[in-house]
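Aim 2 progress update. The chain analyzed this quarter is reproduced below.
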Amino acid sequence: MDSQFANRAYAEQIGVKFPLLSDFERKISQEYGVLNPKFPVANRTTFVIDKDGVIQHIDKDAEALDPNNAHSACSLLEHKKAVSSKRLAVETARRAVSTRSTS
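Predicted structure tokens:
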């Protein structure tokens, strides 16, 4: 719930390259179910959201304080993406060879 400026400074300080959400009005915190009902703050939570908007990883409480957890999750997503792309390329090449052999 820090400002976008505080989040940018924090991201630079810890060396992350992904954006950190600023939810100053607490709308996102409420929608994601992490707004603390007793106090007007969000429970410490880190969500890793892929480019399609799908939540791929969640860290809560003490785990969310360590940016390495989110960084590891992002690295794993990149690895999965690379493996998936490689598999698609291999399958496409196999189909092309199969099509040529039957012609």
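The two ends are 62 Å apart (CA to CA). Strands lie at 45-49, 55-60. These observations will guide the mutagenesis experiments scheduled for the next reporting period.
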